[in-house]
C-alpha cells in the first residue's frame, strides 16, 4: 500500500471467508481507536413502494442488538468513554463509524459487530424512529439543496434509482398489513451481506493481534463472496431529458446558472484524473480565464467546474456560475463564452497540456507527502468508502495519484462536453414556473433548448474572444524544503511585546511538514463604533478577497491559501499551506490591503450580495435564528444578520471610501507565525510587517465586551418557519477555571442523556442537542430543540424539568462510573493536536484569550482532578434550578396553536 512519507502508521488488509474486506491500521501515537463499516447499499436499493427504507434501516441499527438490547446504549457507552458515533445513507452506500478511548475499544467493537449481526429492529422502536425521520424530512422542507435536488430527480430518467425519494417520511414508511419492522429486517438480510461490506479498524493494538479479534467478532456476519451485486443498467438520462432548460425557484435568494454535461462513470479515470484536470482548466481563475473575463464584464461573482452527482454508471459534469444582476441579462452570452473556452482547451497543443498537467501532478504529490493527520473517525470513514472504489495499493494514494496526461482519454471526455449533451439549470426567485416538485413543493418548469442555438454553440470561434489558457505557475519554482529544528521552545515565543504590538513565533517540531500558519489580527476602533461600521468591516473583507482573487490565484493553486475575515474589533489575515513562498505572499497581500481602492460597480454588487445573504439568514432553521439572537444579546460587537443588513443598505460608495481611509490609521497588531520557518525567516517576516505598518498610529488592545447575566431572562422571537424552537443558555458566573471545568464536566455527562430523553424517548423533534458554548472567554452551556409539532413553551417545560432533576442522576452514579467519566473528559482535555492546523488554532486562540503561558490544558486538568462528584451535583442543582440565571429564547406561538395538537397534548408534562 502506498503511503505518504510522513505517515508512520502500519496498514494490513485481510478478507474473511464471508467476503468482508478489512483494513487494519496500527497507530501507536493515537489515544483513540475507531472503526468504520461501509456497505454497498443506499437509497438506490429502496423498493419503489418503500422509498426511504435504507435511511430508516440506518436509524434502526443503533437502537439495540441481540447482545446489547437497550436502545441508544451504544451511543451512551461511547459518550461516557470519550467517544461518539454517527452514520449516513448515500445513493449507493451507507456508512457507520465510531471512535472511543483506546482502553474501551474492544468492548465498543463487540457492540458494533453485533449491530450488523443481530439488530433487534423492534416494532416499538420503529414507531418512534419513524417520527424522527418524518421530523428530519420536515426540518429540510425549506432547504434549497434538498428542494433543487428533488427537481433534479424529476427531470431525469424515472427508471433510474436516482429518481427515488431518498429520505422517506410518514407517508412512504407507514405500516401496511403489518409493522414495517418486518420489511426493514428483510431489507437488512438481503442487502447487508458481508461481501458488500468494507471495514476499517484503527487502534494502538498491533495489527496481528487485532486481526484475530476482528475475525472472532465479524466472522458471524452473513455473506457469500460469490454473490455479486448487479450493475445498474438504466441510464440516468434519456434523450428527451437532454437539451433542456430547467428553471427552479429557490426558497432563499439565489442567482445561479449551471451548465451540466452527462458523462458515464469516471471511476476508471482515477489514475489519470482526466476529468479533474479538465475541471481544473475550466475553473481556472487567473488572468485571461473564463472566470476573469466574465467577472470583468460584471456578469458573475463565482465559477466552479467539475461538481455534480456521480455514481456507478453516471457522472454530471457541472459548471456552476454565480450570476450578478447584470449577468442575469446575459445568460446566453455567458454560455457562448463557456463554449469558446471549451473549444480553446480542446484544441490546445499536447505539449502545453502536458506542462499544465505536470504542474497539477507536482501539487498533488506535494499535498500527498505533506498530509496532516485528520480525526481518526474521519480517516477510517474515508478509507472504508475508498475500499469500494480503489484497489488495496491505492486506498490512500488513490485520491492523489496522477500517472500522466492521456490525450486520448482527454479527447474522449471532450466529445461529451457538447451542446447536444447539455442541460441548463437556472435558479432564481423570478424564473417562470408551471409545476411543483413532489415532497418539497419546489416550483420549476422545463423548456426545450432551440436546436439552432445548440448548433451555433458547436461552431463558436474560440479566437474571437479574449480568453487564454493558464500558464505555468510561478509559485512552483521554489523547492519544498523541510528545515532542521533550530527553535527549541515548546510553545510560541513572544519575540516582540508591547501594549500595541505582539509577535509570537514557533518553529514546528511535532508534525514535520513543509507547511505553516500565519495569523495577523488588526484591531481598529472605527470598526466597532456602531452597527453600520461593523457591517462595513465585513463588506471590506469580502470586497478585498474579491479584488485580489485573480492576482493571488496562482498562489492558491500552489498550495498557499489566504483569508481576510472580520472579527470583533477588526480584521484577521490568515495565510496557510506550503511555507516556501508564504512570507512573500504575506508581503504582497499587505501591500494591497493597506492601500486598497475598490471599484464602485463591485461595491454595489457586494453590497447587494451581503444584504441578500444576511436577509437569507432569516430563512434559516429556527434554532439557528435563536442562536444568532443569543450571540447578539451577549456580544455587543456581534449584531444579528438582519441588523447588519439594515445598516449596510443605507451606505453609499462615498461613505464606504471614507470609512476605508480611516480603517488602518490606528491599529493594535497581534501576530502568530507557526510552522516550517527558521528563526531567521521569522525575523525577516517581522521586519517586513514593521516596514509595512511603520506609518500607522498604534492603539492598545481592544477588550471584546460580553453582557453578563444576573437573572433569568426570556426572549420570544417571530420566525418565518413553521417549526417551533427553544434555546436555553446558562452562563458561567465568573471566568474562573473551576467553574469552566464544572460546565465542561456537566456537558460531557448530560449531552447524550439529553439527546436520548428529548429526541429518542419523548420524540420532541429531530434537531436536539447540547454543547459547551464559551463566548468571549466566558464559559457557558446551551441546550436546543426544534420541533415541527410541539410548542416552544412545552419544549421549555420538558427541557427545564429534565435539567432541574439531572443532579439526581449525577448523584446516583457509582464511584466507578464517576471516575470513568472524569477519565474520559480528561482524555479530551489533554488530547494531543492531530495536525499542524489544529495546533496553530489552539495557539492563536490562547493568544486571543490572553493565555500567554499556553497552559489552559494544564489548568483544566488540575481543576478536573480536584472536582468531586458532590461538587458537581451541587453545581448542577444550583445552575438548573427553576428560576436560576439563564437566557431562554423561544419562537413565538404560531397562528395555529401547536400546543393543542394531539402529540403536543400527549407530550405535555404532568405536574
Residue fraction in strands? 15-25%
Largest sheet: 8 strands, mixed
Q: Portion of residues in helices? A: 25-40%
What would the principal axes of the Cα set say about the shape?
globular
Which spans have pLDDT < 50 for at least 5 consecutive residues?
896-911
Number of strands: 26
Mean pLDDT: 94
DSSP helix count?
A: 30
Structural class: alpha+beta
Overview of the structural elements:
With 911 residues, the chain is an alpha+beta fold. The chain has 30 helices and 26 strands. Strands 7, 8, 9, 10, 11, 12, 13 and 14 form an 8-stranded mixed beta sheet that branches. Strands 15, 16, 17, 18, 19, 20 and 21 form a 7-stranded mixed beta sheet that branches. Strands 1-2-6-3-5-4 form a 6-stranded mixed beta sheet, sandwiched between helices. Helix 1 packs across helix 6 and helix 23 crosses helix 28. It is globular and about 80 Å long. The N and C termini lie far apart (63 Å).
Overview in brief:
The chain has 911 residues and is α+β, with helices and mostly antiparallel strands. It has 30 helices and 26 strands. It starts with 9 loop residues before the first strand and ends with a helix.
Amino acid at each position: 500500500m502506498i503511503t505518504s512519507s510522513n505517515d508512520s502508521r502500519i496498514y494490513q488488509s485481510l478478507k474473511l471467508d464471508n467476503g468482508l474486506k478489512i483494513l487494519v491500521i496500527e497507530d501507536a501515537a493515537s489515544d483513540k481507536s475507531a472503526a468504520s463499516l461501509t456497505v454497498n447499499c443506499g437509497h438506490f436499493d429502496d423498493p419503489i413502494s418503500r422509498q426511504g427504507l435504507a435511511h430508516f434501516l440506518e436509524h434502526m441499527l443503533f437502537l439495540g442488538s441481540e447482545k446489547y438490547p437497550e436502545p441508544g446504549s451504544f451511543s451512551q457507552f461511547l459518550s461516557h468513554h470519550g467517544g461518539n458515533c454517527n452514520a449516513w445513507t448515500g445513493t449507493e452506500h451507507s456508512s457507520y463509524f465510531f471512535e472511543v478511548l483506546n482502553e474501551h475499544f474492544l468492548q465498543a467493537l463487540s457492540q458494533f459487530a453485533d449491530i450488523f449481526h443481530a439488530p433487534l429492529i423492534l416494532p416499538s422502536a420503529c414507531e418512534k424512529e419513524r417520527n424522527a425521520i418524518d421530523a428530519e424530512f420536515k426540518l429540510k422542507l425549506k432547504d434549497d439543496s434538498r428542494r433543487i435536488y428533488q427537481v433534479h430527480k424529476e427531470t431525469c430518467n424515472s427508471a433510474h434509482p436516482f429518481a427515488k425519494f431518498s429520505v422517506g417520511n410518514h407517508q412512504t414508511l407507514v405500516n401496511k398489513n403489518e409493522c414495517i419492522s418486518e420489511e426493514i429486517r428483510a431489507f437488512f438480510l438481503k442487502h447487508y451481506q458481508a461481501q458488500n461490506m468494507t471495514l476499517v479498524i484503527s487502534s494502538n493494538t498491533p495489527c496481528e493481534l487485532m486481526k484475530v479479534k476482528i475475525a472472532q467478532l465479524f466472522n458471524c456476519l452473513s455473506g457469500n463472496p460469490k454473490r455479486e451485486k448487479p450493475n445498474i443498467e438504466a441510464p440516468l438520462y434519456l434523450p428527451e431529458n437532454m437539451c433542456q432548460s430547467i428553471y427552479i425557484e429557490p426558497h432563499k435568494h439565489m442567482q445561479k446558472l449551471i451548465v451540466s454535461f452527462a458523462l458515464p462513470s469516471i471511476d476508471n479515470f482515477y489514475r489519470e484524473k482526466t476529468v479533474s484536470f479538465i475541471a481544473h482548466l475550466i475553473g481556472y481563475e487567473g488572468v485571461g480565464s473564463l472566470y476573469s473575463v466574465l467577472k470583468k464584464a460584471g456578469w458573475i461573482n463565482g465559477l466552479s467546474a467539475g461538481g455534480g452527482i456521480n455514481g456507478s454508471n453516471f457522472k454530471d459534469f457541472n459548471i456552476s456560475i454565480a450570476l450578478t444582476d447584470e449577468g442575469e441579462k446575459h445568460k446566453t452570452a455567458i454560455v457562448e463564452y463557456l463554449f469558446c473556452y471549451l473549444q480553446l482547451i480542446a484544441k490546445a497543443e499536447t505539449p502545453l497540456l502536458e506542462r499544465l498537467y505536470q504542474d497539477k501532478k507536482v501539487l498533488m504529490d506535494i499535498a500527498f507527502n505533506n498530509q496532516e493527520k485528520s480525526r481518526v473517525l474521519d480517516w477510517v470513514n474515508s478509507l472504508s468508502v475508498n475500499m469500494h472504489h480503489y484497489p488495496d495499493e491505492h486506498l490512500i494514494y488513490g485520491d492523489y495519484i496522477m500517472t500522466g496526461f492521456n490525450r486520448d482519454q482527454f479527447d474522449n471526455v471532450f466529445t461529451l462536453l457538447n451542446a447536444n449533451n447539455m442541460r441548463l439549470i437556472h435558479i432564481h426567485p423570478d424564473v417562470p414556473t408551471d409545476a411543483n416538485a413532489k415532497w418539497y413543493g419546489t416550483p420549476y418548469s422545463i423548456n426545450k433548448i432551440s436546436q439552432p442555438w445548440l448548433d451555433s454553440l458547436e461552431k463558436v470561434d474560440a479566437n474571437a474572444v479574449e480568453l487564454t489558457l493558464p500558464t505555468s505557475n510561478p509559485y512552483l519554482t521554489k523547492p519544498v524544503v523541510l528545515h532542521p529544528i533550530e527553535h527549541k521552545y515548546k510553545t510560541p515565543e513572544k519575540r516582540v511585546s508591547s501594549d500595541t504590538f505582539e509577535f509570537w513565533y514557533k518553529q514546528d517540531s511535532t508534525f514535520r511538514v513543509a507547511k505553516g500558519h500565519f495569523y495577523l489580527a488588526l484591531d481598529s476602533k472605527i470598526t466597532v463604533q456602531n452597527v453600520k461600521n461593523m457591517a462595513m468591516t465585513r463588506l471590506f473583507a469580502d470586497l478585498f478577497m474579491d479584488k485580489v482573487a485573480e492576482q493571488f490565484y496562482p498562489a492558491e493553486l500552489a498550495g498557499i491559501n489566504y483569508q481576510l475575515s472580520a472579527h470583533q474589533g477588526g480584521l484577521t489575515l490568515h495565510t496557510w499551506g506550503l511555507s516556501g513562498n508564504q512570507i512573500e505572499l504575506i508581503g504582497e497581500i499587505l501591500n494591497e490591503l493597506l492601500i486598497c481602492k475598490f471599484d464602485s460597480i463591485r461595491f454595489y454588487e457586494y453590497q447587494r450580495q451581503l444584504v441578500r445573504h444576511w436577509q437569507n439568514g432569516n430563512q434559516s432553521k429556527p434554532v439557528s435564528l435563536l442562536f444568532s439572537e443569543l450571540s447578539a444579546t451577549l456580544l455587543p460587537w456581534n449584531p444579528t444578520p438582519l441588523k447588519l443588513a439594515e445598516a449596510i443598505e443605507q451606505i453609499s460608495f462615498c461613505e464606504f471610501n471614507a470609512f476605508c481611509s480611516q480603517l488602518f490609521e490606528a491599529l493594535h497588531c497581534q501576530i502568530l507565525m507557526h510552522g516550517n520557518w527558521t528563526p531567521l525567516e521569522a525575523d525577516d517576516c517581522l521586519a517586513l510587517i514593521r516596514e509595512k505598518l511603520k506609518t500607522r498610529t498604534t492603539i492598545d488592545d481592544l477588550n471584546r465586551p460580553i453582557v453578563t447575566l444576573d437573572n433569568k431572562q426570556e426572549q420570544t422571537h417571530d420566525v418565518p418557519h413553521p417549526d417551533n424552537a427553544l434555546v436555553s443558555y446558562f452562563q458561567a458566573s465568573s471566568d474562573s477555571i473551576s467553574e469552566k471545568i464544572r460546565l465542561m464536566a456537566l456537558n460531557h455527562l448530560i449531552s447524550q442523556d439529553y439527546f436520548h430523553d428529548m429526541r429518542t424517548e419523548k420524540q420532541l423533534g429531530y434537531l436536539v442537542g447540547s454543547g459547551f458554548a464559551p463566548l468571549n472567554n466566558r464559559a457557558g452551556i446551551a441546550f436546543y430543540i426544534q420541533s415541527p409539532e410541539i410548542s416552544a413553551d412545552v419544549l421549555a417545560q420538558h427541557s427545564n424539568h429534565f435539567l432541574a432533576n439531572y443532579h439526581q442522576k449525577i448523584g446516583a452514579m457509582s464511584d466507578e462510573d464517576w471516575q470513568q467519566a472524569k477519565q474520559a473528559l480528561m482524555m479530551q482535555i489533554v488530547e494531543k493536536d492531530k495536525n499542524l492546523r489544529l495546533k496553530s488554532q489552539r495557539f492563536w486562540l490562547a493568544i486571543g484569550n490572553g493565555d500567554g503561558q499556553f497552559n489552559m490544558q494544564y489548568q483544566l486538568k488540575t481543576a478536573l482532578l480536584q472536582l468531586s462528584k458532590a461538587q458537581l451535583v451541587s453545581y448542577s442543582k444550583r445552575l438548573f434550578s427553576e428560576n436560576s440565571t439563564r437566557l431562554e429564547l423561544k419562537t413565538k406561538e404560531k397562528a395555529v396553536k401547536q400546543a393543542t395538537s394531539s402529540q403536543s397534548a400527549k407530550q405535555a408534562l404532568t405536574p
